[in-house]
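Troubleshooting: if your tokenizer reports a length mismatch, compare your output against this known-good record of 265 residues.
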Amino acid sequence: MEKRQASSFYQHFDESERPTVDYFVGLFNQFLFKNEPILTDFLNPREQYIFREIVGGYAQLHSFGGFSNAEKKRMLLCDWSEGYEPDKFNISLLEIVYPQKWSELTHSQILGVLTHLGIELDTFGDIINDENGKWQFFVKAELKDYFLEEIDRIGRTKVKLSELPLSKVLVQEDDSDEMTSVAISLRLDAVISAITNLSRSQVKKIIEAGEVKLNWHLVTQSNIIISVQDMLSIRHYGRYEIINLATTKKGKKRLEIKVWQAKKR
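Known-good structure output:
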């Protein structure tokens, strides 16, 4: 099997994603050269998609994030003889122990603490709860001791982390819906306008205000072209994954979208 060239994949992805393409092509070539399994950090769904496109059908690529509906996952690149086992992904489950009777934690508070530990975002996975005050999150097993030692407070609340087996993960349901929307084009502003019923001028304002992310990156331009597998995050509205595209008889774009509505407006 020949070595991959990152430049051969550039045409399939946005220019801003070229560093990601370079990295994954490098991992694949490393796999070819060493013929040893490669385990990634936690990847968001867009990164998982890019890696799958690069690997194609030339090797096995498994993914696991600690539970079946996980968004961020580690990926295992291996040959066809390698079996799938959760233990191979080196994921630890940590639960936050705190006085639930007197205190309340939020996702943003927990994320804020994790992102200010001086570590990369890809060292931890999803942050989940049971809607009754229990919170858990997933980390790379090789760094669990660091998390256990460093986190003793979230906001004003004193906390302690406890490691649990993955069998104790809180049950998570997929709370997404599906919708169909028609946009005049696949420009970012046109798609957001169709999804939210905002005018194009209103959409321009929320983009300029930093309220829109495309594939987990802030966007500042309205003329970006949207494609299948793209994930939009719009503050106060929710997240939208483009799962299919079609053209109507009048030349407009019909979008099939998976939607996670924002819980608070």
